[in-house]
Specification:
The chain has five domains: about 280 residues, 3-Layer(aba) Sandwich (Rossmann fold), CATH 3.40.50.300; about 110 residues, Elongation Factor Tu (Ef-tu), domain 3 (Beta Barrel), CATH 2.40.30; about 70 residues, Alpha-Beta Plaits (2-Layer Sandwich); about 110 residues, Ribosomal Protein S5, domain 2 (2-Layer Sandwich); about 80 residues, Alpha-Beta Plaits. About 30% of the residues lie in helices and about 35% in strands. The chain has 17 helices and 38 strands. An eight-stranded antiparallel beta sheet has the order 18-17-23-14-15-22-19-20. A seven-stranded mixed beta sheet has the order 2-3-1-4-5-11-6, sandwiched between helices. Strands 25, 26, 27, 28 and 29 form a five-stranded antiparallel beta sheet that branches. The radius of gyration is 28 Å and the shape is globular.
Length: about 700
């Protein structure tokens, strides 16, 4: 069984938007005989890429939801998750990397390391995912794989090493030289399915030998055997080199770089060989769980199918046959008819149908074994829940979920649309932890929150298509935050007399700015001025006030609350009394602590033809943007800036018209910063307008 696990690879394909991830996956599926024809990502042939099964994905030519598939290469099973490149769908990348053992970082040979490549790399680092790099689109004008390898080192800090060099570039890209075997590799046949190995062209031989020496030199860092072989004879076997590269890659100390053009059917099969040769199997990755009885204690999972079950539900989909739960098994097995326990709810669940996914198609299987990814039907759970065997007290570490930065008001057309909208929202919030919804208590509007305009736009469109929910949307709203800028003391007594037992509680202490997190509660009560059993009620009261700031109604963050004194009454004090006292104390001190509004600042990277550089910079300056850097890459200028999100609403249309549709941009959350005073006044006016009842 351990040999079977050793031949499993759980990999993700991640990259900046439009680097060719989905095209690459399409070709992988073709060469592994999972599909019998290659389809275009943009859906020009009316079919679209296999992994983009959603209509919206086919129309827009982008990946929105991560899709899973399984294929066989030689004697290995490869589970692949194709993830979105657009930053608005970053949770899809986040949850995929959480359950993967390795990744292929796809880079464009022209664009190189771009903004989203940096974000994806940070996510890989967060979950310690080893990766290999694939420099795609070597057939394009301006292709420069060596420049990309250099950027991997300088921009991402990778120990990137070329495993191949191209034979020709741009429209003369014919094949590649394998620096391990020192052979030229060509791809013949209509779809490049015939891999032909030949002698290296004479003109490239000396260059290839030099590059091979660099590769061996880098690999010797991870193998004493290889070092000895180099010193003794200078002639080293391919096996020794590959073993050393694998060690370096699995330890995340080396990134082997492969090249090709998926669209032109070149370089994909050697990449598959690299996945099986250099990326880790499930047994080579350390996965930890938390002991539910002692949350400070971490338990390393064995990866053994004979041990008791520990698994993670990392993605949910509501399909035509009910909820589909994607699950990664870390140890043990899940089989049809098994009783498993959800550690979050403590509920027992009987496993019904067990399937293996191939994009939106599924195949029934009997069990999902340790190290594998599969899906279950009819399991009620949330994204990120842990399922274990009865008697196991372990839960998996949770994944990082970023906070939403933008919201929209939804207005249903009629009662029928209201019911359909509620069903859709119920499903979407379950599926996507970054998509949130609530009803505004003052305006009674349904508010949806997400990671960007595109993120919310896609969900509104899915509501209309999948649920026939006729809804209109209000203007996008930015997720502002409130905080304080100085210390303020409080000494508040809550006193209420109502015939029988009254309410009494006094809390004293101070508020002050806190830079290390959203909220810290510091209990400095001594001498029992507030009994220990009422302290949690005080904390609860303070936490409840954070949801809506007293000044402007935005969530309050970056605050430390310290209580150091108080008083209670033997009869009239209760939890409710101290919750109320804490709320009153907060309001009292907050007004004195010089509250301010913070707004989300976005990192905006624009790629534009150089001739429009000046006008693009002008557009950014008009939007309170700060230019961080600009560099020319041939005929393209890359401008990096920091811009308030409030100023970016509708920016894509303005940018298109200013550059004749030739510029594109990416945007991701960077930080929260204080809003200038004139802008605060405008925000307050908008809030007042929203609250005003319609005439």
């Amino acid at each position: 069984m351990s040999q079977a696990i050793r031949n499993i690879r759980n990999i993700g394909i991640s990259a900046h938007i439009d680097s060719g991830k989905t095209t690459l996956t399409e070709h992988i599926l073709f060469y592994t005989k999972r599909i019998h024809a290659i389809h275009d990502v943009k859906g020009k042939d009316g079919v679209g890429a296999t992994m983009d099964s959603m209509d919206l994905e086919k129309e827009r030519g982008i990946t929105i939801a991560s899709a899973a598939t399984c294929c066989n290469w030689e004697d290995h099973v490869i589970n692949i998750i194709d993830t979105p490149g657009h930053v608005d769908f970053t949770i899809e990348v986040e949850r995929s990397l959480r359950v993967l053992d390795g990744a292929v970082l796809v880079l464009c040979s022209v664009g190189g390391v771009q903004s989203q490549s940096i974000t994806v790399d940070q996510q890989m680092k967060r979950y310690q995912v080893p990766c290999i790099a694939f420099v795609n689109k070597c057939d394009r004008n301006g292709a420069n794989p060596l420049k990309v390898i250099s950027q991997l080192r300088t921009k991402l800090g990778h120990n990137a090493v070329a495993m191949q060099i191209p034979i020709g570039l741009e429209n003369e890209f014919q094949g590649l030289v394998d620096l391990v075997t020192m052979q030229a590799v060509y791809f013949d046949g209509d779809n490049g399915e015939i891999v032909r190995r030949d002698d290296i062209p004479e003109s490239l031989l000396a260059y290839a030998q030099g590059k091979r020496e660099e590769l061996i030199d880098a690999a010797t860092m991870f193998s004493d055997k290889l070092t000895e072989a180099v010193l003794e004879s200078g002639d080293v076997s391919c096996e020794l080199i590959m073993e050393a590269i694998r060690k370096g890659t699995v330890a995340r100390k080396m990134t082997p770089v492969f090249i090709g053009s998926a669209y032109k059917n070149k370089g994909v099969q050697p990449l598959l060989d690299a996945v099986t040769s250099y990326l880790p199997c499930p047994l080579e990755v350390v996965n930890e769980a938390i002991d539910t009885e002692d949350t400070t204690h971490r338990v390393v999972l064995s990866g053994n199918p004979e041990d008791q079950l520990v698994s993670l539900a990392f993605k949910l989909e509501d399909g035509p046959y009910g909820q589909l739960t994607y699950i990664r098994v870390y140890q043990g097995v899940i089989g049809r008819g098994d009783i498993i326990i959800n550690t979050r709810t403590g509920k027992k669940v009987k496993v019904g149908r067990v399937v293996r996914m191939h994009a939106d198609q599924m195949e029934d299987i009997n069990v999902i074994t340790a190290g594998s990814i599969g899906a279950l039907f009819g399991i009620d759970c949330a994204s990120g829940d842990t399922f274990v065997a009865p008697g196991v007290n372990l839960t998996m570490l949770s994944m990082f979920v970023p906070e939403p930065v933008i919201s929209l008001a939804l207005i249903p057309k009629d009662n029928k649309a209201q019911i359909s909208m509620s069903k859709a929202l119920n499903r979407f919030t379950k599926e996507d932890p970054t998509f949130r919804t609530h009803v505004d208590a003052e305006t009674n509007e349904t508010i949806i929150e997400g990671m960007g305009e595109l993120h919310l736009e896609i969900y509104v469109e899915r509501m209309r298509r999948e649920y026939a929910a006729e809804v209109t949307t209000g203007n996008p709203r930015v997720a502002y935050r409130e905080t304080i800028t100085r210390r303020a003391d409080f000494n508040y007594t809550h006193k209420k007399q109502t015939g029988g037992a009254g309410q009494f509680g006094r809390v004293a202490g101070f508020l002050e700015p806190y830079s290390e997190g959203d909220f810290l509660f510091d209990n400095k009560i001594t001498g029992g001025s507030i009994p220990t059993n009422y302290i949690p009620a005080c904390e609860k009261g303070f936490r409840q006030t954070l949801e809506k700031g007293p000044k402007m109604g935005f969530p309050v963050t970056g605050i430390k609350v310290c209580i150091n004194d108080g008083a209670f009454h033997a009869v009239d004090s209760s939890e409710i009394a101290f919750i109320s006292a804490a709320k009153g104390a907060f309001k009292e001190a907050y007004a004195k602590a010089a509250p301010v509004i913070h707004e989300p600042i976005m990192k905006v990277v624009i790629e534009t033809p150089t001739e429009y550089q000046g006008s693009v910079m002008g557009l950014l300056n008009q939007r309170r943007g700060i230019i961080v850097g600009a560099q020319d890459e041939g005929v393209i200028s890359v401008i990096e800036s920091q811009v308030p999100l409030a100023e970016m609403v509708g920016f894509s249309t303005i940018l298109r018209s200013a550059t004749q549709g030739k510029a594109q941009f990416t945007m991701e959350f960077s930080a929260y910063r204080q809003v200038p005073a004139p802008i605060v006044e405008k925000i307050l006016e908008e809030i007042a307008l929203r609250k005003k009842p319609a005439a």
